[in-house]
Structures are given as structure tokens and as C-alpha cells.
Amino acid sequence: MLNKKFALAMGAAAVAVLAAGAAQAQGRDLVVASSATYAPFAFENKDKQIVGFDIDIVNAIAKQQGMKLRIVNTPFSSIFASLNNGDVDFVISGVTINDKRKQSFDFSQPYFDARQLIAVPKDSPVASLKDLKDKKVSVVSGSTGDDVMSREVGKTSANIRRFESTPLIISELAAGGVDAAIGDNGVIAYRVSQYPALKTVDDASFPKEHFGIVVRKGDKALQDKINAGLAAIRADGSYNVIYKKWFNQDYKPQ
What we know:
Radius of gyration: 20 Å
Strand content: 15-25%
Helix content: 25-40%
Mean pLDDT: 90
Structural class: alpha/beta
Largest sheet: 5 strands, mixed
Number of helices: 9
Shape: globular
Number of strands: 15
Strand order of the largest sheet: 5-1-6-15-7
């Protein structure tokens, strides 16, 4: 009797999976969350369209896999809740793969090599992370930069100033509200280039990082499709074309 009940349950589960696959096959758009304040990875152009490296990558993957996407601008501070709540199907938003996040979510293979980068005024003596111990530092809330400073000075330190986006942490620095800002290298370098009074500081102690596309825990079917698409665009050269478009150089692994 137990085996029969188990077989019926497994059958029902299989039907549910097939139904979900059929819905996707019929053209349901997959909803993708991205925080469009993260140039050059994702940002709004003058026509209010979301563009950037992340967007080109995910669209290339979708085209290769025959997926239809709808990209939704979502604040980074709520991007993981949106995924958990089922409001979106997956996330691409410069999300660093780390052990803490892997406890709650599944990731694609890495699609970008990254590290943290410090931004400071040009006359600042700051030369490394250690020099920020008694400084006011702006970070994006919940980001890797937030984790870095939390480990360095304590999560509840009043010297950590948390904001919703990278433009805000850089504008706070430019306005003199903090002594430094920390964030992902690509976006920090891009933002600092717009402020002549700022510079970047690269600390060799920062570990290598990788960005991944985020899916709900256990969503292996979607994870596999994304990975297959990513492998395909790397193999056919599309990835390098997109990388060169946004970073003005060929891709070279760290």
C-alpha cells in the first residue's frame, strides 16, 4: 500500500513537472530581475530601456535556448525576496557567488570574473582595505562590499553607510559624506570615471570573485538551460563580442 501511494505521489509530481514544461514551451515569458542602477552591467538608457552587459548576456542565452524573457528593474535590496516569493523566475544583477548565498539559492556557472574595488578622493592616503578601519565607507546594502566591511569593522559599525545602489554610494563619496566606497570592480571603475575628483584603489588582498545567474533552490531544469546557453555563447564567440562591447577589451580569465 505504501509503495502504491508513493508511486501515485511520484506520478503526480511528474505530471506537475510536465505541465510546467508545457507552459514554458507554449511561450510563457520568464521574468528576470535586474537592478538597473549598475552600469555597465544593467542600467536604463535615455529611452528608459534596461541595457548593459548583464542584459546582453542573458538575452544571448535566452536566444540560444529559445526562451522568452521579460526583464524587470528590481532594487538590489529586494531582488532575492522577489525570487523567493516567485515574483521572478531568475536573477541576473552582478550577483557574486558565495557560500552564504549558495545555502539559499542555486547559481549558474560563472559568467563574469570580478573582485572588489575601493573608491576614494584623489588626495586620499588610503592604499588598502586596512586603511578604512576608522573611516566612513559607503556600500550597497546586502552586497559583497557590505560583507567585506562587515567582516572588517563589524556588521553594526556606524562607519558602514548602506545605500540601495552603486550610483548612491559614489555620489555620497563625491559629496564628502563618506571617506570611501567599496563595490564590484566593473561598476566602481565605470562610476569613478565620471568623477574627476575620485580615484580607485585596488587591494591585492581582495579575493577573486565570480558573478552568477541566480535561480530558486532546486530549480535544476532552469539552471541547466541557463548553463547550456552560457556554454554555447562562450563556444561560438558571442560572449567575447559582448564583453568587448562593454569593457573595450577581449575577455581574459583571471
